[in-house]
Fold this protein.
Amino acid sequence: MAHPNRRSEDDLAERLARHGLRITRQRIATLRLLESIGGHSTAVEIHDRLLRRHPNVSQKTVYEILGALVEAGLASRVGDAGGAARFEARSEPHYHASCRICGRMYDLPASADSQIRGRAALPEGFRVEHIEVTIRGLCMRCRDEI
């Protein structure tokens, strides 16, 4: 029996088509991988993992697929200023905590959206569509090593 979190190829193809994306083996494989690893992987890490089953997929193709998935709303790009962008397929709203030493990212529940919207001094007529919060600091492992 298939793992409950592992979508069938038909399900993934249908999601791609529903979001206006052409269905290719590489796109299905990339979306499946993003969903299975749970997020926060760089494009290089994703490419390295895809090569195991798709030895002909180029890094350029992976960047293009990730860009298309983000544009279609099937994936998100998460990044620290100056660091490599990371990608995830998690769709529910959430925030991130990022360790400034090792770069590990943690998911946090997005429970402050209404407070942020209420306190932000936004330009007149501005409509908030999405709030991204990244808390930077030290994870327990890196904190203990300093």
